Amino acid sequence: MNKRFSFSGCMLIAGLLFIYVPMLILVIYSFNGSRLVTVWGGWSLKWYAGLLDNSQLMGAVGRSLEIALYTAIAATALGTLAAFVLTRIPRFRGRTLFGGLVTAPLVMPDVITGLSLLLLFVAMGQLIGWPAERGLLTIWIAHTTFCSSYVAVVVSARLRELDLSIEEAAMDLGARPWKVFFLITVPMIAPSLAAGGMMSFALSLDDLVLASFVSGPGATTLPMEVFSAVRLGVKPEINAVASLILLAVSLFTFLAWFFSQRAEERRRRAILQAMEEMVKEH
């Protein structure tokens, strides 16, 4: 048992080092004073200050964040609706086909999805004149289509675990379905909604293939900008902006964990208080 635990522990540490050491190196080299990545020129903050003058890179960051935010909102809404259809309507004509269409983007290669959407947008532009050109809107539609599947899977798993008697009791007491949904169902599936939204935000911010197919002039996202720049050599500004994104993601993750822990503590205290009150009454 000790040998197995030791081997598993070593593999876990090796895996974590393989993931996080390159990130640490990237952050360190973002403070490199030399323009050459392979040459250390001392500690410097000039690349962070230079980001303010790099309008092209900062514009790509702003566009990526904007698209990721809109994608997270739209994908969460559409994925939740799809999850409700799959879990709360067990029998309807075409359910198998609908379930397959919802989960197809999960296993479909990004190249096929991107090419299909490109052909769709071109055909729609020729037939109805919309979209007139490819840009932020087409990227948002592509990302929403892709990310909705992940939200549907996450929310469906949560909906299958819910106790329907709570919702049925609320409707028996006279609550309308929409009120039951917003006051009872949504709070119970809130963690899955948050997880799906954050996953959609991260996938949209990270996407390169889909955006390359459906983007147009003036709609370059951050992954596209980084990819085009890396082919000519890694620039120190890219290390700096990547470090800032890592810092923002780490801070957001810590805050989400902190507030979720506080909410869990309040819930446990409420349960203990309710149990103590029941004991006192009996």
TrEMBL record:
The ABC transmembrane type-1 domain, residue ranges: 61-256
PROSITE patterns recorded: ABC_TM1
Entry's transmembrane regions: 12-31, 67-86, 98-124, 136-159, 180-203, 238-259
Bilayer topology term: Multi-pass membrane protein
Chief subcellular location: membrane
Pfam families, sorted: BPD_transp_1 (PF00528)
Domain of life: Bacteria
PANTHER family cross-referenced by the UniProt entry: PUTRESCINE TRANSPORT SYSTEM PERMEASE PROTEIN POTI
Family per similarity comment: Belongs to the binding-protein-dependent transport system permease family. CysTW subfamily.
Name under which the protein is recorded: ABC transporter permease subunit
Organism, scientific name: Geopseudomonas aromaticivorans
